[in-house]
TrEMBL record:
Belongs to the TPP enzyme family. Keywords: Membrane, Metal-binding, Thiamine pyrophosphate, Transmembrane, Transmembrane helix. It holds the Pfam family TPP_enzyme_N. Its cofactor is thiamine diphosphate; Mg(2+). This is 2-hydroxyacyl-CoA lyase 2. It catalyses: 2-hydroxyoctadecanoyl-CoA = heptadecanal + formyl-CoA; (2R)-hydroxyhexadecanoyl-CoA = pentadecanal + formyl-CoA.
Amino acid sequence: MEPFGVVGIVLGSFTSLVLGGLLFAAYKLGILYQLFHKTDTKSSKHGGDIVAEVLHAHGVKYIFTLVGGHISPILVACEKMGIRIVDTRHEATAVFAADAVARLSGTPGPVFIEFPIDTLYPFHLVSKEFVVKNPPKGLMGRIVSWYLHNHLMNLFAGAWEPRDMSPLPVHIPQATDNQIQKCLELVSRAKKPVIVLGSQATLPPTPVDNIRKALEDLGIPCFLGGMCRGLLGKDSPIHIRQNRRDALKEADVVVLAGTVCDFRLSYGRTLSRRSKIIAVNRDKTQLLKNSDMFWKPTIAIQGDAGSFLVRLSEGLKGHRCPEEWPQSLKAGDATKEAANKAKAEEKTEYHLNPLKALHCVDELMAEDSVIVADGGDFVGSAAYIMKPRGPLCWLDPGAFGTLGVGGGFALGAKLCRPESEVWIVYGDGSLGYSIAEFDTFTRHKTPVIALVGNDACWSQISREQVPMLGSNVACGLAYTDYHIVADGYGGKGYLIGSENEEKLNDIVRQAQRDAREGKAALINVLIGKTNFRDGSISI
């Protein structure tokens, strides 16, 4: 009897193996899933409806797009859900507009999601595309037809079942109590502390007004970069705008709050070896960037910079930085800014002094203005001259200097703050990327104001290329009539040159009136050359 027992065991194992294989195949092919999740072949709903429901559940107010058949179901469904569809003239503008809304509203950051087109259209349309017009004959034809039909059923199986669409929690790293205590000890003993803030400090969850109050209570001199420009208002006694390199060399404690030691801080070489460095950043890689070469943090904290500053202020309640330190730095600011104003009055060889145009707009712009920076040389000058009025009132492309952000950033900003003046400071080179969006501003009733520094040149590049390599090749542009282009797109365009320089203030005020009355305006200012930015680098 023993051999028969062995055979029985073998047969049993074989049967189990076959059944297991069949179950695995049924699982991989979705057959098991279809047993519990039915496909409604009669429904007219489509994947765009689900996308719209999720976006609505997440509080999304705007969709920026350049229309295409592959996304039409999403756009149509979102419009039905009450989400505003804003179509632009270039895909890049749509991305930049969404970026601006995220920065100004607190949506946490960029996410990429790709939707296969067969998941977006309704069953009856998709099924037509799955029909094989001339299937192979015989067994192979039946297998192909079955496989395609099964795949189609899998796509729509359980598609309209209720699901949790609430936002997922966002993990934000925080400084530990022990790290905070060590920082309190360092800062409390400092005689010449400095705080350098980067865009990351403005991110949620800490409201920017809370961060501003924390900084004002600390009384420590602050250098503001990126989205932090304007955080302390227009004329704060602790906001230092000039001579950063000298201040950092003299400081005994430096707090890098969301600031990265990249080229903007000379990779850390602007920091003194004698200074105690407190670095705070959410990203570990950015936190320690170049610390193996040019600088070393005394305390490195992987955590949220804004929350850190509030906790630092609370821990030092009643303590303030010695007043003579910020006062001395502010005196340096006054000296430098007086020199800048004098420089603005110098005559250029032809056309207007660009600094004069920037000073004029800075003095006349409304207190609720949002400034969008898009350019090289002219915008680099604007960063020294123009003063954002408050928190989250400055938008620039960041460390990579991406050109072309102007139209999209301004569009997003105007939608977020419809009552505010929104200014785009353009170089004439960067304007070429998004001047067509004046059509978008007109159609979507988002009247912004563009100030164009038109020197018929990619000046930031030319300044180095000509003396180094002896040629201006590819740097020259033309004094193009950009104001006429704005008129053609339904906006209002103005030209300012040396022959009507005395009307600069009047034209700026008229552009402001145009915006209040619902018309986007462009001021095309023909500018000459100055040596204001000699020594700045572009490579």
